[in-house]
Amino acid sequence: MTDTAIAHGPVVEKRRGEGLTAAALLTPATVFVAIALLAPLVILFRYSLNEFVPARKMMVEAVTIANYIKFFTDPYYTTILWTTVRIAVLVTAVCLVLGFPLAYVVARTQSRFKNLLIISIVLPLFVGNSVRAAGWMVVFGNKGFVNASLMGLGLIDKPFEIMFTEKAVIIGIIAVNLPFMVLSLQSVIEGIDRSVEEAAFSLGAPPATMFWRVLWPLALPGILAGTILTFILAMNAYATPFLLGGPLFKMMAPLIYNQFTQQTNWPFGGAIAFILMTVTLLLTVAANLIIQRRAAR
Amino acid sequence: MIAVIRRRARRWALNGAAAITLGYILTPLVFVTWLAFFRQEIPSFPPEGYSMRWFAAILDQPKFVEGFRMSFQVGVLATFFGLSLGVPAALAVVRHRFAFRVPLSQLLLMPLIVPGVVLGTAMYVFQVEAEKGLDVDVLGTFYALVAGHTVIIIPWVVRLVTASLVGVDRSIEEAAQNLGANAFVTFWRITLPAIRPGIVAGALFGFVTSFGNLEMSLFLVGPGRTTLPIVVLQYLEWKIDPTIAAVSVVQILLIGIAMLITDRYVKLARVV
């Protein structure tokens, strides 16, 4: 999941009229994305500074940071933010630990079924979160696979409560994000020359040492890309907490949707959207700095 | 001898860990597929028997058929617009040097990293403003939905076409031009065939992204115009049964086929 092609495109000699051609090719897409993506974000930010009159369910034009203050001073909302951050960190850590072996095996395999392996990792990504949530509902339900099996074996008397708990949400989000982590790691591990691993082994390094001293530092760009992507996706998860967490379980993305559609409080919804984006960005940058400082040592 | 055994044990441990992760990823798809073939309507285990009737039951519920048709139409149109805008942009980014080249190309990739819910809310308020300012219907219209989906398709097209353009040898195009071909003929006969894998992959990935999009679409659909993922979400909020599982299986099959076709053109390992 790298965009090296854009960062290091081939250097092309400058010719006459080239600027014009480039502008003609690039302008339509740029203008479209600017209008359809940047302008909406600007308007949403402007809305987040407006006031909301609950009695009339109406937005009143203003320039105030009251919506942001409301969020950070009400424990109801800060708890939701904290839950979201906590789940996102946990999910990211588990994805890294579970994803690395699979990424390594996929990167190093010589099997002719490698493409099938990759398709089976990519397919769930595109099938959509609702469908995968449906799968977990079959597994976790009171008469679902896990409870029916455990009760059938006589291990438990009454069904485990898994559905509509935080556990179900975490298990669901990990499954949603694992493919992103595996693909990010796999693309970087594939670029690491196998002989550096063998060199470490032939110099007598045990596997653990080889991993920490050779593989981990070399795979760091992929680890960073994968953890950042996984973290962002977990912070913004919508369908999984909505379907597996039930109506009482709250994370940030469902909260935004709720403020927008149920409460029709656009200013507050906009503020929460920007709080979510900012917190995600800050935590990502912080983690980036810490990991890179560690690696530089 | 011991060294060999130890190495083999390590290999088994590694493959075992990889298999567990792959199993974890595929678990929800396996169970939803299993449920689609249950005979009874309640998802209880063990199943009382197996049946194919739920696949026919999909057709009795027009909302699934309608949702599928809406998702398909939006996906096809948005992919068409995404290609028309994205392929030239990718050509410009790889083949030309100009001011703000890197920031502009990052702008085109930005829709991939803006969270779906934020994208949806932002587009929603934008449409509210556009409707006020232009005095035409924008909110919840078909074309606004297509425009939103085009935004999320463009980054896939740019990324995949860029990747395939980098591998194209420039000297072949120069040879064509030396032999008298004009810019258009050179593009049509040389460049386009060379980047076709990237275009096919971009189109398929873009289409599949659009087809499965839920978060952004939630804000953009209008009355009587709902896409399949939203129909599925609303159904699941209410109940889970073999009918919705059958809908999911059809979706899994179609996307699986699309992936296999893409894989014939470009190795998936290289593009995702």
UniProtKB/TrEMBL annotation, chain A:
- UniProt-listed Gene3D superfamilies: MetI-like (1.10.3720.10)
Q: Which residues form the signal peptide?
A: none
ABC transmembrane type-1 domain mapped to chain residues: 81-287
Gene Ontology BP annotations: transmembrane transport
Tell me how this protein sits in the membrane.
Multi-pass membrane protein
Q: Which top-level group of life is the source organism from? A: Bacteria
Its main localization is membrane
| Transmembrane segment boundaries | 23-49, 80-106, 113-131, 168-189, 214-235, 266-291
The alphabetized UniProt keywords are: Cell membrane, Membrane, Transmembrane, Transmembrane helix, Transport
Compartments, as annotated in UniProt? Cell membrane
Q: What InterPro entries does this protein map onto?
A: MetI-like, MetI-like_sf
GO CC, any one term: plasma membrane
What Pfam families has UniProt attached to this entry? BPD_transp_1
| CDD domains associated with the record | TM_PBP2
User: What does the sequence similarity comment in the record state about its family?
Assistant: Belongs to the binding-protein-dependent transport system permease family. CysTW subfamily.
Which PANTHER family does the UniProt entry name for this protein?
Answer: ABC TRANSPORTER PERMEASE PROTEIN (PTHR42929:SF5), INNER MEMBRANE ABC TRANSPORTER PERMEASE PROTEIN YDCU-RELATED-RELATED (PTHR42929)
Know the name of this protein?
A: ABC transporter permease
The scientific name of the source species is: Reyranella soli
TrEMBL record, chain B:
Membrane topology, as annotated, equals: Multi-pass membrane protein
* Alphabetized PROSITE patterns for the sequence: ABC_TM1 (PS50928)
> Main location per UniProt?
membrane
Q: Name one GO cellular component term.
A: plasma membrane
Location of this chain's protein in the cell: Cell inner membrane; Cell membrane
Q: Which GO terms describe its biological process?
A: transmembrane transport
* Residues passing through the membrane, by range: 12-37, 72-94, 106-126, 138-158, 199-222, 242-261
ABC transmembrane type-1 domain mapped to chain residues:
68-262
- Alphabetized UniProt keyword annotations: Cell inner membrane, Cell membrane, Membrane, Transmembrane, Transmembrane helix, Transport
Acyltransferase found in the keyword field: no
Q: Which family does it belong to?
A: Belongs to the binding-protein-dependent transport system permease family.
Protein's recorded name: ABC transporter permease
State the species of origin: Reyranella soli
Q: What is the lineage of its organism?
A: Bacteria, Pseudomonadati, Pseudomonadota, Alphaproteobacteria, Hyphomicrobiales
